[in-house]
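Sample intake sheet
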Amino acid sequence: MVRMREEIIAVAMSGGVDSSTVAALLRARGESIVGLTMQLWNQRRLPELMTDGVAGHRCCSLDDVYDARRVAEHLDFPYYVVNFERQFEDTVVRPFVDDYLSGRTPIPCARCNTFVKFEDLILLARQVGAERLATGHYARIRRNAETGRCELLRAVDRAKDQSYFLFGLTQEQLSRTEFPLGEMSKTEVREAARAAQLPVAEKPESQEICFVPNGDYARFIEEYLEEQGTAVAATPGEIATPQGEVVGRHEGLHRYTVGQRRGLGLSVGRPLYVIEIDVEKNRLVVGEDADLRRDTCEVRDVNWIAWETLVAPVGAGVKIRYRHESAQARIEPAGEARARLHFEKPQRAITPGQAAVFYQGDVVLGGGWIV
């Protein structure tokens, strides 16, 4: 009698309570699993950023690797650390810097999910014999019986939902992925971790981006460019109103983002906000709150999940930031992998470089990057 090969599931181990609980849940249901932790950023790089009060809850730190290994030993499954530093720098860190220098406000976690945590990690998982990958993301996947396509849905716990960061996943990636926490609340996850006696059951959540340890994006960009042998990006220029009135000086456009009010160094007797970052003229354009509101924008590099492509206008709820309440809009095709959004009501601080993600109820239709 020929024995069927045992199916293996790879678990993306971040060292936090969520991915550790995923491993515990899969083990409890009798799955054969292997743990994979990605080494993404050399924590010894740019030591000048490691100042007093450095955020203690970054993702992907060396402590996280140690915690992930402890969980694997506790649950008794194979565990490996894989070095993805080159891929991470090429597809996440450098685009992050380039975006800020181009007047955009990037979302590195969304790029990391699309190009590293799923594209590269799924490939590696298959190389070690695992056809599926499970992660600790709060989202859900189901197959649409009518279209045959995999659908991405919001998590049951709306406060923890991470579908916004996952809009770039392809049908192939979704078909090989599991989100075991998608039906659970954070409270239930903590309870499951305690029940499994996981050593990270009470570990706080990570808050900061792994390669920006002190949360100072502008300083990271300057230090990174200096390390790369490139001129420091801080080039002073004018701060002006839309009418051209110069009201101050800025210290480098990479220090600002659309919608920002604090830190402008202005004293004009009324609140002013960044409404545009004009890289060509090296000018920061500021205005009043009403100037921040727009009812249209375009998005590029659109990834459609619910269907292959958009052929006719469709109505959807659109999130233009992670913490943004979705706003109703009409989405129109606007060329290859592009779409034009028409909001029913003007939206505040539509920011180039951020993601616009499209929803119908709990279903993620797709998403793209705001131009």
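Comment: The chain is about 25% helix and 30% strand. Residues 14 and 72 are 12 Å apart (CA to CA).
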